[in-house]
């Protein structure tokens, strides 16, 4: 397990068999029965596999890890933390981060607004998607009490004002386009007003808002702490150019987790960079400061257990894939930590590189890896794939009829960890 010890803790259904009406089965096949997951907590993933012998993918949740990460952010970020719901909107996860002290939530759709409102009554929600439809704005404002909205164009500003009848209690956040060349995922291009076009939008939003905020995103899985300091300097330069008072600075998300071949600097380095950049700017001294961590809070807190259905050379056919929990292992080619589980016996000590094919009929359902697994891995073995608490369960689909929402809680440590969690 890779660890950095210099700082404190830091994508249940049964298998359904579809039958064509003109086919007579040779014998009745019983639907597998899984134990109730309402209260059972397994001490480890291996114990779960030993008991359940699951024939469908199983999502393993580690509440202690998510709790520790959430508390660490609350204690060390120089402002208020809001959870980026898109990374994992499971109500169980929302309750965990709320119990850890996070009461603010970054929502990107009306569906996310609803799940937060129904799960965490009284939570403060920020509708941070820069392009929203009018119906979502209306319902969020009038039905769920949302007052904080982001935007990156004059057209979106006008839309928000028209739908809310030019309300005088709006907190508006202008999303700026920032360079994200220090991140695994670039966030440039789709959202964010270009800096050379931002002045008029900032001035217009200032006139229409109770509180004016500026927000940005330095890219998902940002690997350079100094990217935040550079973005803060850009914000200050814009404010000076336009002589505008800022009420809220939202530095966005992008805080990283750890993956094979992708070990970020210690998270405390990110906090120190942010603290120093804000402290050096007197005009930000009275600003409320927010951040939107998602991946960093929940990635280590979840994994998925899959079963090997066939082996062809160094390619393993597994029962989850890019249309399920492993989208990021496909085209983006994230390499996740893996562990083989064979309840009936020991696996080989020597390992080799493998790739995965998902269960669908789409030839693009492939994950090149490489994933390092025992050389003798075979059909019927299970594999735990780590770091999937972020975007794993969120991005799964029903394509080709392959889908599983079986979720259990486990008490063992994640396959990889940025730092120790007691």
Q: Indicate the proportion of strand residues.
A: 15-25%
User: What is the second-level CATH architecture of the largest domain?
Assistant: Alpha-Beta Barrel
Q: What would the principal axes of the Cα set say about the shape?
A: elongated
> What is the CA-atom radius of gyration, in angstroms?
23 Å
| Number of helical elements | 10
Along the chain, the helix and strand elements come as: EHEHEHEHEHEHEEHEEHEHEHEEEEEEE
Give the helix level as a range of percent: 25-40%
> What structural category characterises the helix and strand content?
alpha/beta
CATH superfamily of the largest domain: Alanine racemase
Distance between the termini: 15 Å
User: What is the number of independent domains?
Assistant: 2
Explain what the structure shows.
With 422 residues, this protein is of the alpha/beta class. The protein folds into 2 domains: 41-62 and 299-410, Lyase, Ornithine Decarboxylase, Chain A, domain 1 (Beta Barrel); 63-298, Alanine racemase (TIM Barrel, Alpha-Beta Barrel), CATH 3.20.20.10. The protein contains 10 helices and 19 strands. It has helices at residues 45-52, 63-76, 91-99, 110-119, 134-144, 154-163, 198-208, 226-242, 267-279, 295-298; strands at residues 41-42, 58-61, 80-84, 104-107, 124-127, 148-151, 171-175, 183-185, 211-215, 220-222, 248-250, 288-291, 302-312, 315-318, 338-341, 351-357, 366-374, 382-385, 407-410. The strands form 3 sheets. Strands 1, 2, 13, 14, 15, 16, 17, 18 and 19 form a 9-stranded mixed β-sheet that branches. The chain has an 8-stranded parallel barrel with strand order 3-4-5-6-7-9-11-12, surrounded by 4 helices. Strand 5, helix 5 and strand 6 (148-151) form a beta-alpha-beta unit. The two termini are 15 Å apart.
């Amino acid at each position: 397990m890779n660890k950095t010890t210099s700082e404190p803790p830091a994508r249940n259904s049964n298998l359904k068999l579809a039958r064509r009406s003109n086919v007579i089965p040779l014998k009745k096949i019983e639907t597998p029965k899984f134990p109730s997951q309402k209260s059972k907590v397994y001490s480890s993933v291996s114990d779960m596999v030993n008991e359940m012998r699951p024939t469908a993918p199983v999502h393993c949740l580690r509440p202690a890890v998510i709790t520790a990460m959430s508390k660490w952010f609350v204690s060390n970020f120089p402002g208020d933390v809001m959870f980026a719901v898109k990374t994992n909107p499971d109500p169980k996860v929302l309750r965990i981060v709320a119990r850890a002290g996070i009461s603010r939530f970054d929502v990107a759709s009306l569906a996310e607004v609803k799940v937060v409102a129904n799960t965490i009554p009284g939570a403060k929600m920020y509708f941070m998607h820069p392009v929203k439809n009018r119906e979502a704005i209306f319902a969020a404002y009038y039905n769920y009490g949302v007052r904080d909205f982001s935007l990156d164009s004059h057209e979106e500003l006008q839309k928000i004002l028209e739908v809310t009848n030019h309300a005088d209690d709006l907190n508006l956040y202008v999303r700026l386009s920032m360079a994200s060349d220090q991140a695994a995922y670039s966030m440039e291009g789709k959202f964010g007003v270009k800096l050379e076009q931002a002045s008029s939008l900032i001035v217009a939003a200032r006139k229409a808002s109770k509180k004016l905020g500026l927000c940005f995103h330095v890219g998902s899985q940002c690997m350079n702490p100094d990217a935040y300091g550079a973005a803060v300097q850009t914000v200050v330069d814009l404010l000076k150019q336009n002589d505008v008072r800022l009420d809220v600075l939202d530095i966005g998300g992008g805080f990283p987790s750890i993956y094979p071949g992708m070990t970020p600097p210690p998270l405390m380095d990110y906090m120190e960079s942010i603290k120093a950049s804000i402290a050096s700017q007197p005009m930000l001294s009275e600003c409320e400061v927010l951040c939107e961590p998602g991946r960093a809070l929940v990635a280590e807190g979840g994994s998925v257990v899959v079963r090997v259905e066939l082996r062809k050379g160094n390619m393993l056919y597994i029962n989850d894939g890019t249309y399920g929990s492993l989208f990021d292992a496909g085209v983006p080619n994230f390499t996740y930590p893996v562990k083989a589980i064979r309840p009936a016996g020991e696996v080989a000590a020597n390992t080799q590189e493998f790739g995965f094919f998902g269960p669908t009929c789409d030839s693009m359902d492939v994950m090149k890896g490489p994933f390092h697994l025992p050389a003798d891995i075979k059909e019927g073995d299970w594999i735990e794939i780590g770091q999937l608490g972020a975007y794993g369960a969120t991005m799964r689909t029903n394509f080709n009829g392959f889908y599983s929402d079986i979720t259990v809680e486990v008490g063992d440590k994640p396959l990889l960890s940025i730092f120790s969690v007691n």
